[in-house]
TrEMBL record:
The chain crosses the membrane at residues 351-374. The lineage of its organism: Bacteria, Pseudomonadati, Bacteroidota, Bacteroidia, Bacteroidales. One of its GO terms (molecular function) is protein dimerization activity. Its EC number is 2.7.13.3. This is histidine kinase. Residues 1-23 form the signal peptide. CDD domains: HATPase_UhpB-NarQ-NarX-like (cd16917). Coiled coil: none annotated. The keyword Membrane applies. Residues 398-449 form the Signal transduction histidine kinase subgroup 3 dimerisation and phosphoacceptor domain. It catalyses: ATP + protein L-histidine = ADP + protein N-phospho-L-histidine.
Length: 593
């Protein structure tokens, strides 16, 4: 309805304009633009004969009254549109005639509007060559069109070039290039909001996925394309192009009768508005009949395809295409020679200045490089000394902890044993008690030695190592101990970095020892949780509260604090009912690090 309304308004405008054609060149050129708008509507509705008549009239007026470069470029656009229409009705000689006339106008122009017209003409030539089966040349023109589109500010023209280039690349099985071009086309089509542009891009995407064997993607994009096709006139260029692809898909699915129905409908428009070459259409119909076992119909269709191909590939049209390609190639070479000469002059003029600048820059750069090198060496030495000192400090702290454990435990026990031995006789009944004390001492020394050994994380993960430690710890204390480990994300225990696992394990050891030595707890609950971003350790006990922050006297707490800092962890303490809660939170590096 909207299109009919617009058509009526344009006809009224044209009627009003025709009554004053003698009002001067500007008025006549405006009239040509009004005719162009009406021709665009006819083209969108698939009326090729009607839009040819309109564009011929517009081109005649533009040829007579074009006064500026912009007028000439508009005239070139009319000629290109005529070429496209003649291709749609399979009149290739007329197509090449109008493409040649358009190229003669725009070849020497470099304005943004001229770039758009060149992008359009190169794309149209690529389509024509594909239509004629000259795929290698078609690829070359598609490449040139995409290169030209990089400098084109007209979104619709960039979309036109990218859509058709993507289809041509896909046809020649260059799927990566085709995907890249079609992504550009689809993005621009989405920005435009125009259903015919979106349908054209989707049709090419369907072709790409069909050729690459991605059946699920074919079905998905066919369904999307069908929704856009329903919004457009059945005879529009975009819909006819989609129906041709749909017919090919149905043939591949073995739905030969449905495929033939579409091909016949497309061929019925031959000479009026054809999206499929006549020989190709009849050849597909013949193959469908053959696959259905209808040999007589297949033979008739093969014969029609033979006569169609004979008329399509006549020598005159082939020669004209070759002549056009040669002319375009020669023009490109002349432009390249001119560009190189100008570039050579600019380079020669700037060479001396660059030499002076280069000498100064080299001298400055050499000074900067030497300064940076010496500074980095100095910083490296300072860092090595700092790390060495930190390592030594860590060793000293660890030795101090071991010394205290041995002093407070083993030495005191040995003193008690010595005092008892000196007080008892050879046949004293307290001998068994002394032996028991010796066995306890041996067990304690063995535990201290075992705890000092670094865990083997190359053989076990942190959850297994802490579970084994808890089992040993249970046998050494009367307190009830529970240990639970849980995963709350996609990470596994094996993915915890060894450096972090080692420090968390040592902090766990130290805190468990602190609880037994200082709190008098009868129940201890430890929980280790791993998420995608944090490793957390929580230890709760029902003993007396004590300050988890380090002090000068608290060697073990100081070591825990240093270990936490080394891995960027945070230690916190709190009370929950009768339970004292110790918590350690360690941020984890991302999986890619």
């Amino acid at each position: 309805m909207h299109r009919l309304l617009l058509t009526g308004l344009l006809l009224l405008t044209l009627t009003a304009g025709s009554s004053s054609l003698n009002a001067g060149p500007v008025r006549d050129f405006q009239y040509a633009l009004q005719i162009d708008s009406l021709a665009e509507i006819s083209f969108a509705e698939g009326d090729m004969r009607g839009c040819i008549s309109l564009w011929l009239e517009a081109a005649e007026i533009a040829d007579r009254y074009a006064a500026t470069e912009q007028d000439s470029l508009i005239y070139s656009g009319f000629l290109q549109s005529l070429g496209v229409c003649y291709r749609r009705i399979s009149m290739m000689d007329s197509t090449l005639y109008y493409y040649n006339r358009a190229w003669d106008i725009i070849q020497d122009k470099t304005s943004p509007a001229a770039v758009s017209e060149k992008t359009r003409l190169l794309t149209s030539m690529a389509i024509l060559l594909t239509f004629m089966g000259r795929d290698e040349e078609s690829m070359q023109y598609a490449d040139r069109a995409m290169q030209m589109a990089e400098h084109d500010s007209d979104m619709e023209m960039v979309m036109y070039a990218a859509t058709n280039a993507g289809g041509i690349y896909a046809r020649n099985r260059q799927f990566d290039k085709g995907t890249e071009a079609l992504r550009t086309a689809m993005a621009k089509a989405g920005e435009s909001g125009l259903p015919d542009k979106q349908l054209s891009a989707l049709t090419m995407i369907v072709t790409l996925h069909k050729l690459s064997g991605q059946r699920d993607s074919v079905d998905y994009y066919m369904a999307r394309a069908e929704k856009f096709a329903e919004q457009l006139p059945p005879e529009s260029v975009a819909v006819l192009g989609f129906r041709e692809t749909q017919a090919q898909i149905l043939r591949d699915m073995g739905r030969y009768a449905e495929s033939n129905a579409i091909f016949r409908k497309l061929l019925s428009a031959a000479g009026e508005n054809s999206s499929v070459r006549e020989d190709t259409g009849w050849l597909n119909i013949a193959r469908n009949y053959a696959d259905m076992g209808q040999w007589s119909n297949a033979a008739d269709s093969y014969e029609k395809a033979y006569f169609a191909v004979d008329s399509f590939y006549n020598a005159d049209i082939t020669a004209q295409v070759s002549e056009w390609s040669a002319k375009y190639g020669a023009a490109e070479k002349e432009l390249e020679i001119s560009r190189l000469e100008q570039e050579s002059l600019r380079n020669r003029a700037a060479l001396q200045l660059w030499i002076i600048i280069a000498v100064v820059l080299v001298a400055v750069l050499a000074g900067v490089v030497l300064t940076v090198v010496f500074r980095r060496r100095h910083q490296k030495k300072v860092e090595e000394l700092r790390l060495a000192q930190k390592y030594i400090d860590g060793l000293e702290k660890e030795r101090a902890r071991v010394a205290r454990d041995l002093h407070d435990g083993v030495c005191n026990d040995l003193l008690g044993i010595g005092m008892q031995l000196s007080a008892m006789g050879p046949d004293s009944p307290e001998r068994e008690e002394v032996l028991s004390m010796l066995e306890g001492l041996r067990s304690e020394v063995r535990t201290i030695s075992h705890d000092m050994m670094p865990p083997q994380f190359n053989l076990s993960d942190i959850e297994e190592v802490m579970e084994m430690y808890t089992e040993r710890f249970r046998s050494q204390t009367s307190a009830g101990i529970e240990f639970n480990a849980s995963l709350e994300g996609s990470r596994t225990w094996q993915q915890v970095p060894e450096r972090i696992a080692y420090e968390v394990y040592r902090i766990f050891q130290e805190q468990m020892g602190n609880i037994i030595r200082h709190s008098g707890a009868t129940r201890i609950e430890a929980a280790l949780k791993l998420s995608d971003t944090v490793l957390s350790l929580t230890i709760s006990n029902d003993g007396r509260a004590f300050d988890p922050t380090p002090s000068r006297e608290g060697i073990g707490l100081t070591v825990m604090s240093e270990r936490a800092k080394a891995i960027g962890a945070v230690i916190s303490g709190s009370a929950s009912g009768e339970m004292q809660v110790f918590r350690l939170d360690v941020p984890l590096p991302s999986s890619g690090q």
